[in-house]
Amino acid sequence: MRPFLTLLTLAAAAAALVVMGGRDESPRLGSPPVPVASAPAAPLQAQNGPPQATPSPLQDPATAISLDGLDAFGLRFKRQPRAGLVFDMRSGEVLWRRNPVQPMPMASLTQIMSALVVTERGRPRERVRITKAALRYSGSGVGLLPKGRHVPLEALLHGMLLPSGNDASIALAVHVAGSERRFVRIMNRRARRMGLFCTRFVSSHGLEPGNRSCATDLAVLARTTMRVPRIARIVGKRQARVRFPIKGRRLYLNSTNPLLRSRYPGTIGLKTGSTDEAGRCFVAVVRRGRRTLGVVLLDSPDTARQATKLFGAAFRAD
For position 143, what pLDDT does the model report? Predict the structure, then answer.
């Protein structure tokens, strides 16, 4: 009888584990399971929906984001962003959060990963041939890409990161990988290597809602890309003048970053995005004294206003 009872006990324990595993509703999109954090709930946690997840073991400790611990301050808006995060760019400490691991469309924030892949695989002095694919774009674009001509890679990088040029994204993708489809596969592999557990790309520019991420993954991506000097130099510019094969030999580009445009003190990057499905999205980086903070906003009614309020509260909480 005892062996039989032992088997029954083991079977019951296994069934309990299966049931418990089925209750984990953390968002994943094809990535390995991410453990749920055992830390105490942060302020405003109850209305934030999905369970909080710890950083993936794949993440580089130098760029990982920690969701453990309590928020440093509480801040509510009359109209809340769907998701958001305030974090320390150096330590990865989270100071404020809202739905930090909820996947949602990210619009042109996609181009942050595109820039990372391009800088890892392309040299600044390379020249990019403008193909038909780059001219068949939708949404925002540089708009002056000369078909069949060769354009400096760094000029296109400016055109992608400052005015969110979808044509520049496609031209760079085709140059680096031979086609945008192959480039997107590289982007997704890079995301997996970084441990971005709720991120998936279907294009190099983000116009489609299939490009999805969450505030935590975008914070990791921001910490990673701001360590790349080529990217950091570009995204810190309010305006740029680059060499280009057009009349006058110069192309003038303006950043869509509302904090740079308004000369918000200490702003050093990063990127905006907007589509009907994603709403207004924004990743911003501000440095004051020895501290550098980042803000991620997804589907925000007013990115400039909400980012400045979050930065103000975060620096005061220091």
Answer: 77
